Amino acid sequence: MSEDRDFSEKMKAMVGQQLGQTMVLAVERGHVVKFAQATDDPNPLWTDAGYARTMGYADIVAPPTFIFAFRPEGFSEAFGNLGAPLLKRTLALGVEQEYLGSIAPGDTITVRCKLVEARERDGKSGKSWILVSEKTFVNQDGKMVARERSTIQRK
Amino acid sequence: MADEARGDVGVGLDLPSVTKHPTTRQLVKWAAVTQDFYEIHYDRDFAQSLGLPGVIVHGPLACSFLGQLVTNWIGARGKLRRLSCSYKGMIFPGEDITCRGRVTGEHRQDGQKLIECEVWLENQGGIRVTEGQAVVALNRPGQ
After folding, report:
1. Which residue, A71, A136, A43, A155, is CA-closest to B30?
2. Could you point out which of A2, A39, A45, B14 has its C-alpha 20 to 30 Å from the C-alpha of A60?
């Protein structure tokens, strides 16, 4: 039907658009320590500066998955509502993270997110859309320290 | 554990497992540090209104458990470079969750040895509820 085709074209035309606002976050020691505590990870590299220095670091570093703590304003609403009101439900399918450099207290990380894929899928319970967002994490020196691709299903 | 990562790493080597016991308190702590306040993770009435028996563990928290599995294993000998997870099943607080992994391959890139691993979370019933892959970069000699 032409309505389906219009909807499909609209969804695909959104690939490349930014999701949520650009986020600039100063990494705080307390946040890194609380993140390690929340995951119940006793590795002293994330919490003990003296230990981190014996390992060759200047200070504690954040666990790699600390990038889950960066949530740009409006990202969840923008990503999770794509295709609304026709698409109503969201299911998180998975995530891929790449760690290119350390993140430590005192760093300033700029996070941007955009939609990079939108494809239709025919499944047992009907049609759905597979949507992939990509976040980039750049530190105060302009170095990309991490990337994350997050995949959801919307139907 | 770290010496195993430094030496010859054979395909099939099992990573030392890690057991996690997520609690509702942990889910609240996770919500606080990630600002993920979706009610499905702390409001039982809300979770049950969606047909679930109770609140569920956040997928990214489960992924972080797998991150810990790998960083525990490599220790000071290298760094986690990539981690991917697919959320296969729900995890409920109060369950024991076992993180497991196995080396599946290795290759060299820019003079650095990279180790590929299959990683997963098993629930109390032995079912894999999260599956993924990890890539570890071993430190260069003298690093």
Report:
1. A71
2. B14
Average pLDDT value for residue range A52-81: 93
Q: Chain A neighbours among B 6-65 (CB < 8 Å)?
A: 20, 26, 29-30, 32-36, 59-61, 63-65
Q: Is B15 left (phi over 0), alpha (psi -120 to 50) or beta?
A: beta
Q: Which residue of A has its CA nearest to B77?
A: A55
Q: Where are the alpha helices (DSSP H) in B50-87?
A: 59-74
Q: Which residues in chain A are contacts of B18 at CB distance < 8 A?
A: none
Chain A CB contacts of B79 under 8 Å are 99
pLDDT tens-digit readout, B10-67: 789 999 999 999 999 999 999 999 999 999 999 999 999 999 999 999 999 999 999 9
pLDDT in tens, B122-135: 999 999 999 999 99
Q: At what angle do helices A29-38 and B24-34 cross, to 10 degrees?
A: 150
- Whether the CB-CB separation of B132 and B116 falls below 8 Å is answered with no
Contact (Cβ atoms closer than 8 angstroms) between residue A152 and residue A90: yes
**Contact by Cβ (8 Å): B2, B72:** no
The per-residue pLDDT for B9 is 65
Tokens standing for residue A132:
């992939």
Please give the pLDDT value at position B3.
43
Residues contacting residue A60 through CB under 8 Å, at least 6 positions apart: A29, A32, A33, A45, A46, A47, A48, A49, A52, A104, A105
